[in-house]
Design goal:
9 strands, about 260 residues, about 50% helix, alpha/beta
Length: about 260
């Protein structure tokens, strides 16, 4: 396993959080149907502005106008994949950073092939669980649907190689999050097991990662700060909730209060 070069703390995240608050981005989210409202609420609670535009005629305009683009393939169709490709092309031409969330890559052929093609379009960040990252790197066959069958630490080496090969940042999320640019590895600890009991927390993290990737400066630190923000919110929400239903609401409240 590659050597972890640093452990990120809330104190280190503070500068990115302040920068984000001073200049919150507009995030164009092409995300899955299951979590659209949750993703939008997570971004709003964190201070960003979500735009959920998916029509092929509108996505190039929106992608160029946004501060960041999120591509989440959770409920992908052939038509939606074409619209996503248009958005990625427009964002790349305009210099807008875009994030890939390869939901269930390695499990189903349409999304796996599409995500692998998108790697050549220079994503700013790839955020996935261990099974998804291993599958993208050609070292695994995916998890059980959207659930990872591997601990996040098992995918760190694959993430390092993927980041180096495609000159991008890779986030492996799980009980511990790892962020790498192919050379450095940042470890973000925290969160709560309750985060796996409700839908949308991983997708919401990808949205926050996309939003923070829009900040100028050291992108790896900004992305780690987004992971730290979600981890802290998850911890606080778990302390205040009685179960998964109240946890989902408390997570939004915690993100708002952490601002």
């Amino acid at each position: 396993m590659s050597e972890v070069t640093s452990v990120f703390s809330a104190r280190q995240s503070a500068a990115s959080w302040q920068q984000f608050s001073a200049s919150p981005p507009l995030v164009h989210c092409m995300t899955n149907l299951v979590v659209q409202a949750q993703t939008a609420n997570i971004l709003l609670a964190a201070g960003a502005s979500p735009a959920m535009v998916i029509d092929p005629e509108e996505v190039p305009v929106m992608a160029r106008h946004a501060g960041a683009l999120l591509i989440n393939v959770g409920t992908i169709t052939r038509e939606l994949s074409e619209a996503m490709q248009l958005a990625v092309n427009a964002a790349s031409e305009a210099g807008v950073p875009w994030t890939l969330d390869p939901v269930a890559a390695g499990v189903l052929p349409l999304r796996t092939d599409f995500c692998r093609r998108l790697l050549d379009a220079s994503p700013a960040v790839i955020r996935g669980n261990a099974s998804e990252i291993l599958a993208l790197a050609g070292e695994g066959v995916g998890g059980r649907g959207v659930d990872s069958l591997e601990d996040s630490s098992r995918a760190v080496d694959a993430a390092v190689r993927l980041a180096a090969d495609y000159r991008t940042l890779v986030v492996v999320s799980g009980k511990t999050d790892y962020v790498t640019d192919g050379h450095r590895i940042i470890k973000v600890q925290g969160g709560s097991p309750m985060m796996t009991a409700v839908t949308g927390t991983g997708c919401g993290l990808s949205a926050l990662v996309a939003a923070y990737s829009a900040l100028p400066g050291e992108r790896i630190h900004h992305v780690a700060a987004a992971c730290q923000l979600m981890s802290l919110a998850g911890e606080q929400a778990a302390h205040r909730s009685a179960g998964p239903g109240s946890f989902a609401v408390q997570l939004i409240d915690a993100l708002w209060q952490l601002r």
